[in-house]
Write a structure and sequence with these properties.
The protein is of the alpha+beta class. Helices cover about 35% and strands about 10% of the residues. It is globular, with a radius of gyration of 13 Å. The termini are close together.
């Protein structure tokens, strides 16, 4: 299992490369447009926000990871000053940085959403 510091660093690296979408509505839009390869949700997202994100990711079959980070901590990982409940990776090559990813799933037909606590 991947440690939290490596997750934070990997998200920051992906953001610098332009492979991250941040903010609930932008993440949902990326999921709808099939640009999101993976979605990360913070631990203190509201129930309504969580339901909205999980409904979209389930429908479009985008994997989800719930992180043990607050909205502020997640925002800092990707260089934002305002809190954010969710971020998505838009380049599936960055999934290789995360050990929870089965590299055989990178073909584009990845499985169902699931919660993974890091």
């Amino acid at each position: 299992m991947l440690d939290l510091n490596k997750t934070k660093n990997s998200l920051g690296l992906a953001k610098k490369a332009g492979a991250v979408t941040a903010g609930t509505e932008l993440v949902i839009d990326a999921v709808r447009k099939k640009k999101a390869a993976h979605v990360f949700i913070c631990s203190d997202a509201s129930a309504q926000t969580m339901k909205k994100l999980l409904d979209k990711t389930d429908f479009y079959r985008v994997p989800v990871t719930k992180l043990d980070l607050t909205m502020s901590e997640l925002a800092r990982c990707v260089g934002l000053t305002r809190p954010t409940a969710a971020v998505s990776l838009t380049n599936k090559n960055f999934l290789k940085l995360f050990n929870f990813c089965d590299l055989s799933d990178l073909s584009g037909e990845s499985g169902k959403s699931a919660e993974v606590h890091l």
